[in-house]
Specification:
Radius of gyration: 31 Å
GO cellular component, one term: cytoplasm
Strand content: 5-15%
Number of strands: 16
Family: Belongs to the DnaG primase family.
EC number: 2.7.7.101
Number of helices: 27
CATH topology of the largest domain: DNAb Helicase, Chain A
GO molecular function: ATP binding; DNA binding; DNA helicase activity; DNA-directed RNA polymerase activity; zinc ion binding
CATH superfamily of the largest domain: DNAb Helicase, Chain A
Function: RNA polymerase that catalyzes the synthesis of short RNA molecules used as primers for DNA polymerase during DNA replication.
Shape: globular
Strand order of the largest sheet: 1-2-3-4-5
CATH class of the largest domain: Mainly Alpha
Length: 603
């Protein structure tokens, strides 16, 4: 195990946490640290901080925190061993086969997930081999060539072909000793009712592997080449495939998104492949479903500008509106690319070419407000006076959400000119609506309980936090606190951290918050360490500050002891145990005297 600890430490020191987290969160430098929107909860103001010096992250909003390994475990839903393997691969470090085997024994669920992903990877290679081998794949290749898919994109997106056979995949899985029951749960094979034998679900179909954010195959989509129904057959949700948390093509688009700080959101995987072929390599898809909070968070973390390019039918327009509502805020620029009636991006590019798509569709995207005005217009009959007034009020209500006065003024002038209404009256009406919205928000804020993060901690809690933060940075301070306080911290999580810290230094480890977190297994303790590590503190240690903190904790500890013994004494009296009650009273008096002397000495 010691060898593995050394390898884990080598991974931690070989990678920069800012680079790793930067693949998931758009980070901006602020002082010594980097900040961004937290990937673990929905927020509009950045509260997520990453420290390159300490190699730690912490969210001051939701409390999430830790190091490289905990981040990968949380963001990707990985076990520790999966996170270690992923990071080792990135750092080009060999973990050794024993690590994987031992970790699988400790975590059976990890073993199952790994077997499924390995099975899906095997089939991705198999389907692609069948497609690119003329003997088997000519029907699939002919279809793709007729649709204008380039050889580069076929390879890039690892497109494949499932031959018209009931058992080609089943036989391969059996030969490779892949667990058939798990592959059935992943929706790759199915079982016949009459003889309980497995058979292939995907037959005579062009296969589109569906990847998670890391680029691992987690499912397949198959387009039939015959008359089979449905036309597109997709794998069901499984323990490795959660549709709502995936943006198709994200792993291939990530670099382009980071470089341009722009993402194009499409509906389906065929649209994404076509867009990438046209040179719009920052394209991803929400898999034909309504955009989810997880997908929206992934987009807003990575891009400043997001262009929604859904179909132009009613369903597409409604989906665009919902997606825009989820994505807007925190200074993000949301645009809507208007597709011609009856065409999706795949159709458009095939008909008019990639350059036209880039210039006339993506390049000509509407501002969000222009799109909303068109969307609201569709809901009203503007030849009717009542509907016309309602439409104007709808638009004014949307204008209250715009932060920039110039923007508001621009759209107010458009309304004024179109409906021959004075600009002043529109401004007054819009201001009234804005005031009303603000009043409601303030009312709501007053009725809501105070957030955890707004709580002002009592002096003794702050003292304990400062001591622990200093202890993690200095063994000498830790030894001093141990000699003075021992385990007499009043807050349970602080008491636990102090105990772990004493043991950590006793093992000869150096002051290193990132390494200390690595030694902890409890996520709550890991989060607390990252929180305390990010506390703003002067580099210079003030001896008086340490002394004051120790006094605060001792004072609180003795006060808590008195309160506990008072409670015990009351219970003893109520139960008639007057002898125990007298002994407790004597102890209380003694502690009060000690506390009195202590306060006289240090006040």
């Amino acid at each position: 195990m010691q060898l593995q600890d050394n390898v884990i430490e080598e991974i931690r020191k070989s990678l920069d946490i800012v680079d790793v987290i930067g693949n998931y969160v758009q980070l901006k430098k602020q002082g010594k640290n980097y900040i961004g929107l937290c990937p673990f909860h929905s927020e509009h103001t950045p509260s997520f901080s990453v420290s390159p010096d300490k190699q730690l992250y912490h969210c001051f909003g939701c409390g999430a925190g830790g190091n490289l390994f905990t981040f990968m475990m949380e963001i990707e839903g990985m076990s520790f061993s999966e996170a270690a393997e992923s990071l080792a691969d990135r750092a080009k470090i060999d973990l050794g086969s024993s690590f994987s085997k031992n970790s699988d024994k400790r975590d059976p669920n990890n073993q199952k997930r790994k077997q499924v992903t390995e099975g899906l990877e095997l089939l991705t290679k198999f389907y692609h081999y069948l497609l690119t081998t003329a003997k088997y794949g000519s029907p699939g290749m002919q279809y793709l060539e007729n649709r204008g898919f380039s050889a580069e994109m076929i390879k890039h997106f690892r497109i494949g072909y499932a031959v018209d056979s009931w058992d080609a995949v089943t036989n391969l899985l059996q030969k490779r000793d892949v667990n058939l029951e798990q592959m059935e749960r992943a929706g790759i094979i199915a079982k016949r009712g009459f003889d309980n034998k497995y058979f292939d679900r995907f037959r005579n179909r062009v296969i589109f592997p569906i990847f998670n954010m890391r680029g691992q195959t987690v499912a397949f989509g198959g387009r039939t080449l015959g008359e089979d129904k449905p036309k597109y057959l997709n794998s069901p949700e499984s323990e490795v495939f959660h549709k709502g948390s995936i943006l198709y093509g994200y792993h291939l688009a990530r670099q382009a998104i980071r470089k341009t700080s722009q993402a194009v959101l499409l509906e389906g995987y065929v649209d994404v492949i076509r867009a990438h072929q046209a040179g719009v390599t920052c394209s991803v898809a929400s898999m034909g479903t309504s955009l989810t909070e997880a997908q929206a968070a992934a987009l807003t973390r990575m891009a400043d500008t997001i262009i929604i390019c859904y179909d132009s039918d009613n369903a597409g327009i409604e989906a665009s509106f919902r997606a825009a509502e989820m994505l807007q805020g925190n200074g993000k620029v949301i645009k809507i690319a208007k597709m011609p009636e009856g065409l999706d991006p795949d159709d458009y590019i095939r008909k008019f070419g990639g350059e036209r798509f880039k210039s006339d569709v993506i390049g000509a995207s509407q501002t969000l407000m222009t799109f909303k005005m068109g969307y609201l217009r569709r809901k009203r009959n503007l030849s009717d006076e009542g509907d016309r007034l309602l439409y104007i009020e709808d638009v004014l209500r949307e204008l209250t959400k715009l932060n920039r006065a110039v923007e508001r003024d621009h759209y107010l002038r458009l309304l004024s000119e179109e409906f021959s209404i004075s600009l002043d009256s529109l401004k007054k009406q819009q201001h009234q609506l804005y005031t009303m919205v603000q009043r409601r928000e303030k009312q709501k804020a007053r009725t809501m309980p105070l957030a955890r993060t707004n709580r002002i901690p009592p002096a003794y809690e702050m003292a304990e936090r400062k001591l622990l933060a200093r202890m993690m940075r200095s063994r000498e301070i830790s030894d001093r606190v141990q000699d003075t306080l021992g385990g007499s911290f009043t807050i349970d999580v602080h008491q636990a951290l102090a105990a772990y810290l004493y043991a950590y230094y006793a093992q000869g480890n150096p002051p290193d918050e990132g390494l200390f977190i690595q030694k902890l297994e409890d996520p709550a303790l890991q989060r607390k360490v990252s929180e305390l590590s990010m506390m703003p503190m002067s580099e210079q240690v003030d001896d008086k500050e340490i002394e004051d903190c120790l006094h605060q904790v001792i004072r609180q500890s003795k006060s808590s002891m008195i309160a506990d013994k008072e409670e015990e004494r009351k219970k003893a009296e109520q139960s008639g145990d007057y002898g125990r009650s007298a002994r407790l009273l004597s102890e209380i008096i003694s502690i009060k005297k000690q506390l009195g002397h202590f306060q006289v000495e240090h006040d």
